[in-house]
Design a protein that fits this description.
Helix content: over 70%
Order of helices and strands: HHHHHHHHHHH
Strand content: under 5%
Largest sheet: none
Distance between the termini: 72 Å
Shape: elongated
Radius of gyration: 20 Å
Length: 186
């Protein structure tokens, strides 16, 4: 019965412990099409509750599974925000992978998630990623660093002022307006 299955799936999302997450994981991979959205919803609620209760590692696994590139964009966006919330700095490798990926929309969402991860360690990882990114993505990362307003990025951003790409140079100068101090005037 579809109504009974739907109620059971919803209950698993409210229970939100490791066992419920395991069942929802199995259902995610094997559920009937008409129940798939309900399974995703319940699994997402489960992950949110796990984060709130300090079980970020378990929640991160759920969010990582929901980041499946073949999944609906709205689910991937929510999962990426959840992953950033659950893992913080630990989510940056996946976020940077998406910043440098082919999906333009997910690049922007990943940049938004990078902004919300606090701390100097995150800033340093984002600054280090500049050299590995193509010019257009460097511009995006420089915008993220500008919004973070963390002086830890000054050395990496200053180096980009001399970049071969004009857009990168301009973005670096704009970023320095936000994070720079007297040491960057020259």
């Amino acid at each position: 019965n579809l109504k009974v299955a739907s109620a059971a799936i919803s209950a698993l999302g409210r229970i939100a412990n490791a066992s419920a997450a395991g069942v929802l994981s199995t259902l995610y991979k094997q559920s009937r099409a008409e129940l798939h959205d309900e399974v995703v919803d319940a699994w997402m609620r489960c992950a949110e509750k796990m984060v709130a209760e300090g079980a970020g590692v378990g929640a991160a696994r759920i969010y990582s599974d929901l980041l499946d590139p073949s999944g609906p964009e709205r689910i991937r966006i929510a999962a990426l925000h959840g992953l950033a919330s659950a893992q913080g700095v630990g989510a940056l490798p996946r976020i940077l992978e998406l910043v440098n990926g082919e999906d333009a929309r997910m690049r922007l969402v990943a940049a938004e998630c990078a902004e919300m991860i606090t701390g100097e360690q995150a800033t340093r990882q984002l600054a280090q990623a500049l050299d590995k990114a193509p010019p257009a993505n460097q511009v995006l990362l420089l915008e993220v660093l500008a919004k973070r307003r963390d002086k830890a990025a000054i050395p990496a951003v200053t180096a980009k002022v001399a970049d071969a790409d004009a857009d990168v140079r301009f973005a670096a100068l704009e970023t320095l307006k936000c994070i720079g101090d007297g040491s960057v005037v020259e």
